[in-house]
Design brief:
The complex is a heterodimer of chains A (about 425) and B (about 100).
Chain A lengths: L8 H29 L2 H6 L4 H15 L5 H26 L3 H17 L4 H23 L3 H8 L3 H8 L17 H4 L6 E4 L14 H12 L5 E8 L5 E7 L14 H9 L4 H13 L5 E8 L1 H10 L9 E9 L15 E7 L19 E6 L6 H4 L2 H10 L6 H14 L2 E10 L5
Parallel strand pairs in A: 3-4, 4-5, 5-6, 6-7
Antiparallel strand pairs in A: 1-8, 2-3, 2-8
Helix pairs in contact in A: 1-3, 1-4, 5-6, 7-8, 10-15, 11-13
Chain B lengths: L2 H28 L6 H65 L1
Helix pairs in contact in B: 1-2
The chains are: A alpha/beta (about 425), B mainly alpha (about 100).
């Protein structure tokens, strides 16, 4: 990765915290060591060796104070920590501030009154577009602060307390109504799949890398119909593994397939949806044997569906064995895997992507089985900031990372990415055609 | 263990803790998922800071050594004084016994 600049402000923030803790520890040590110079045992024994006592005191004070002692080191570390924090704050509050969009809207406000008599329709359309752009950019700017804002401002007290306690959400933020009601309001169909006649250019070629798998998910999101892909990978030793690529929401509103707004809301609120059932049917249709090892790769709603499946013991450990989940831009922090499944999860989250904050739960702590990689990349556009291809590029940028948790995960999924590959793309629907 | 030896031991523990802090920083930077030219420069900076921590640890060990020497010299001096005291006591005892015999 050398030669490519990828500044990660979330990582800098973590470093800043490590630095501040080190500075605090060193400052505490400096005080402790200074107090040792005043220990009565030195003064009381000085009568026997005044020169030795003075020498010991000088050495202790030199180790504790300036110019190279503990206190000086503590000050250097504190300065380092502040510099790191300043870089992060500058990025978050200054560099990410939607200046261009604000200036554009301000320019419209200044000139609208003069232009309105000549072209009222055009002026209003222009103002509407500039306000929409400003709102769009504002969402990305405020997204990193969504959890604290919700914990303070959401009308529902139950919701606020759930957010403050980082509990999985059970109710909606406005009325406090149980999210399980979503199942009643947005009826989820039984799910339906049919083999798609469309063959992507990458079909039947080895996936190669996790970034490439996410690019395939991105391709499927831009296909004319709601799709998912099941890829059979046969390794050189004859072992067969399966990769399932799950695209996210393709359109706002309600449609006859699960990759719509109602499907996404249902995936967040319910453990089983038309999408999860469609995945099971796709595995049956693809001939995936029971207990086969599976890697689930999903973006947005696809990532939520992947975690819903990984958390379902009837699917994970029953129908198949989900060894790994890769979710990008998905609010899955509160979603667990099935107990005893050993499924490893990599969640990739852009902190400026509001979708990753929709569960209002901060990222799960890092463990060998659960790695959350957060980064900050604000495109000043909700759709672009959430784009699967951007996530794919970010995952590709992780390839050279020395992080042992990342390396462990990458080594674990490596067998899924090389070998003779056969691809089946399925069209999805909420239910069978009438 | 004398109180001075305990003091020297405490300084050695501080030295070990300072080194551990340097190691923690290097570890935190090494396991960072962050990859870039800037990250490489940052890790080099962290390596410099660890050297600084090692230098401080060296100063603490020097202080510990100075206290140990002081403790040793104090013990030697106390031993010398005890010997002197015993010599004087014996001398006085002999003198009294000599005077008594006279």
């Amino acid at each position: 990765m050398s030669g490519r600049i990828v500044v990660d402000y979330e990582e800098l923030r973590r470093m800043s915290r490590v630095w501040a803790a080190a500075a605090k520890s060193l400052a505490g040590q400096a005080l402790s060591v200074v107090s040792l110079a005043g220990e009565p045992c030195i003064a009381t024994n000085a009568v026997f060796d005044p020169v030795g006592a003075a020498h010991a005191d000088v050495a202790i004070l030199a180790a504790a104070a300036v110019p190279h002692g503990l206190a000086a080191m503590s000050a250097k570390f504190a300065a380092d920590g502040l510099a790191l924090e300043a870089v992060v704050l500058k990025e978050e509050f200054v560099d990410d501030f939607p200046v261009r969009e604000l200036a554009a809207f301000d320019g419209w406000l200044t000139t609208a009154a003069f232009r309105l008599p000549f072209d009222p329709g055009g002026v209003l359309r222009d103002g509407n577009a500039r306000l929409a752009a400003l709102s769009d950019a504002g969402i990305g700017y405020l997204s990193p602060f969504l959890e604290p804002m919700l914990s303070m401002l959401a009308p529902s007290a139950r919701f606020r307390s759930d957010v403050a306690a980082t509990r999985p959400l059970q109710v909606d933020p406005v009325f406090g109504a149980p999210l399980a009601l979503v199942g009643l309001l947005a009826r989820e169909g039984p799910g339906y799949v049919a083999v798609s006649p469309v063959r992507p250019v990458w079909a039947d070629s080895p996936i190669g890398s996790l970034g490439s798998a996410m690019r395939r998910v991105s391709d499927l999101e831009h296909a004319p119909s709601a799709d998912l892909a099941v890829e059979r990978v046969v390794a050189a030793d004859g072992t067969t593994r399966w990769v399932v690529e799950l695209p996210g929401m393709r359109h706002m509103g309600v449609s006859a397939d699960p990759e719509d707004l109602s499907g996404s809301v249902a995936a967040m609120a319910l453990p089983a949806t038309a999408y999860t059932r469609s995945v099971g049917k796709a595995l049956d249709a693809a001939g995936v044997p029971r207990g086969a090892p599976v890697l689930l790769v999903g973006h947005s709603e696809g990532g939520i569906v992947a975690m819903d499946l990984a958390g379902d013991p009837a699917f994970n450990g029953g129908r198949v064995r989900v060894t790994h989940v890769v979710a990008a831009g998905s609010p899955i922090s509160s979603k667990p895997v099935a107990p005893g499944s050993g499924t490893a999860v990599l969640s990739v989250e852009n902190v400026n992507d509001i979708v990753t904050h929709l569960d209002a739960v901060a990222a799960a702590p890092e463990t060998p089985q659960r790695l959350t990689y957060q980064f900050s990349a604000d495109a000043h556009d909700v759709v672009q900031t959430h784009d699967a291809a951007r996530y794919a590029a970010r995952i590709e940028a992780l390839d050279g990372s020395p992080n042992p948790l990342w390396r462990g995960f990458a080594d674990g999924v490596a067998p899924y990415l090389q070998g003779a590959t056969a691809t089946i793309v399925f069209n999805l629907a909420d239910g069978p055609p009438n | 263990m004398s109180s001075l030896d305990a003091l020297a031991d405490e300084l050695r523990q501080h030295a070990r803790r300072a080194e551990a802090i340097g190691d923690e920083l290097v570890h935190a930077a090494a396991v960072a998922t962050w990859t870039s030219v800037a990250a490489d420069a940052f890790r080099a900076h962290v390596a410099r800071r660890r050297r600084d921590c090692s230098q401080v640890a060296g100063m603490l060990r020097s202080a510990s050594s100075a206290v140990s020497h002081f403790a040793h010299d104090v013990e030697m001096e106390k031993a010398r004084l005890r010997r002197l005291e015993q010599t004087v006591v014996h001398g006085v005892g002999h003198a009294i016994s000599f005077v008594g015999r006279l």
